[in-house]
Design goal:
Layout: H1 3-24, H2 39-46, H3 50-58, H4 61-71, E1 76-81, H5 83-87, H6 99-107, E2 110-111, H7 117-122, E3 127-132, E4 138-146, E5 149-153, E6 158-168, E7 171-176, H8 183-186, H9 217-246
Parallel strand pairs: 1-7
Antiparallel strand pairs: 1-2, 3-4, 4-5, 5-6, 6-7
């Protein structure tokens, strides 16, 4: 008989307990949307990229990358040269660059697609970068893989990709220990062609520089002595004739 009141008590308390648990249950908060990716912040956090950050900022490429990351479905890949990479450049290498060429140099370190290190080992070369020439043609990079090592070549320099600062879609950022110098800006210039020879207009007579040979003084002296001998002969002959006649 004692079990019956207990059963009734449980039946009475169960709905109350269920209501209490539901009213106090707290659902897990939804993850807040992540803010826009900031390339310069990623580089600044890792240190030793002060010079590259300055180039990104001065050329406005940093803002361009941020805008593209927010609108692109392909993602992006950035190769970040260290401060030491800029320091080991030959003195004056970058001094003669125009503002447009500085933009091209920075964009040459950016690929308009996300690539993991594994992707770069098997990618088809050359890989198009964000840098383009005046004719609209894209500057390219070449990648080779050997084991776990990936090398990148610009045609002017070759350097290994040493460290992944970020490797998560939509942005991959890799450290490189050399500035990637595009061949279009820093390659050997072709030798200047020799000027074409001047053409003589048709019908124009050719002039001769050679002057007619003039008689030499020796020739003149020879002719003069000959004339003198003839004159003397005539005088002697006339003298003989006169002597014969008088006699």
């Amino acid at each position: 008989m004692a079990s019956k009141p207990l059963s009734l008590l449980l039946l009475t308390l169960t709905p109350c307990l269920f209501f209490f648990l539901n009213s106090n249950a707290q659902t897990a908060p939804a993850p807040s949307p992540s803010g826009p990716l900031n390339l310069t912040a990623i580089l600044d956090k890792n240190g030793q990229f002060t010079t590259f950050i300055r180039f990104l900022t001065e050329t406005q490429v940093a803002n361009q990358i941020t805008n593209q990351l927010n609108s692109s479905t392909e993602g992006m890949t950035v190769f970040a040269p260290t401060d030491n990479a800029f320091q080991i450049l030959k003195a004056g290498t970058l001094n003669g660059l125009t503002e447009q060429e500085k933009v091209q140099l920075v964009l040459y370190h950016v690929l308009p697609k996300y690539y993991s290190l594994e992707n770069l080992q098997t990618v088809s070369n050359p890989v198009r970068t964000q840098a383009t020439g005046q004719d609209g043609g894209a500057f390219g990079l070449n990648f080779t893989g050997e084991g776990n090592q990936v090398n990148v070549s610009s045609g002017v320099v070759v350097t290994p990709i040493n460290n992944a600062l970020r490797q998560q879609f939509p942005l991959a950022v890799y450290q490189v220990d050399k500035v990637l110098l595009p061949e279009e800006l820093f390659g050997a210039k072709p030798p200047a062609s020799a000027p074409a020879p001047e053409k003589t207009p048709a019908g124009t007579p050719k002039t001769k520089d050679t002057k007619a040979a003039e008689p030499s003084p020796a020739d003149n002296s020879t002719g003069g002595s000959g004339k003198t001998s003839v004159g003397m002969g005539l005088v002697v002959g006339l003298g003989l004739i006169c002597m014969v006649t008088l006699s």
